Every structure is written in structure tokens, then in C-alpha cells.
Amino acid sequence: TNFHKAVSEFGYRQDEGTVVATYTIAGLKSGSTAQAVWGLDDGTSSNRIWNYGRSSGDATQLISSTDGSTLASMAGGSAVAGALASTASAYKADDFSYVKDGVSVGTDTNNTVPPVTKLWVGRSSTSSNHLNGYIKKLVYYPARLADATLVEESS
Questions:
Q1: Is the pTM of this model over 0.85?
Q2: What is the edge-to-edge ordering of all strands in the sheet holding 69-75?
Q3: Contact, 43 vs 60, CB < 8 A?
Q4: Does 60 have pLDDT greater than 80?
């Protein structure tokens, strides 16, 4: 199952926030097709923050795009079919961070937060990006949690 919800319906903060997810991708699509765990966007791929897995190349990424330009991209290694994964993704202007399975993957200190209007769960606004898996936990915090907390939340 996948769905989307307007960010105005749940207390989303445009200036900062954190998303923690624990999930399994049951079957990986071939090639570079992204399988979205969650995404925040404006209904397009031009303004978004999202977390996805894929079988080849960079995978399980937090990507922030504004006006179609990728500003932050932090890869946590290729996704593994059937394996439980936990991620913590935090955003704030000039302060993005991504942690996978309790290990800091990367930070980015030179970016802006893209304007978004929707939260997608189990897919992105692109119809081909279905998770094809299970989400055990998905938590949104209306604050940019500390990096040490991101490690703890995703362990």
C-alpha cells in the first residue's frame, strides 16, 4: 500500500525536520529504478527530499532537489532484497544529514530546503517508484534532530 498526504495535514515544518524509517524492499527492480520508501515533494521531481533504495549504483539515498538541481545526495550503499534497513534523514538549511543502520552516511552544509506540499509513503510522485516492500516504522519529527540522535534512531 502507498499513499500521499498534504503536508498541511500533519504539522510539517518547511524550515527543518527529520524522517526515520525502518523498511524492507521485498524485491528489487533491475537497473537504476528507484524504489521510494518516502518522499516529500511538490508533486514534481523538481522540488523534493526523498529516501529510496535501488539495486545498482548509488542506493538508499537522501536527495534534496530545488528547481530540478540536486543539492544534496548521500548514498548508503546498494539495497539488499529482503533485508531490514533503518534510515534517519534530517534537513535544515545548510544542515542535511543521512544515517543508515546506525552509521552516518553523510552530511551536507551547503543547501536549501526545497518547497514541498505532499508526503508520499511507499512511492514518490513518479508513478514508477513503488517500494515493493514493507514499512515497519515511519516517523516524522518537526525538528532537525542531532546527529547522535539520528544514529540512535536508525540503529
A1: yes
A2: 3-6, 118-121, 35-41, 48-53, 61-66, 69-75
A3: no
A4: no
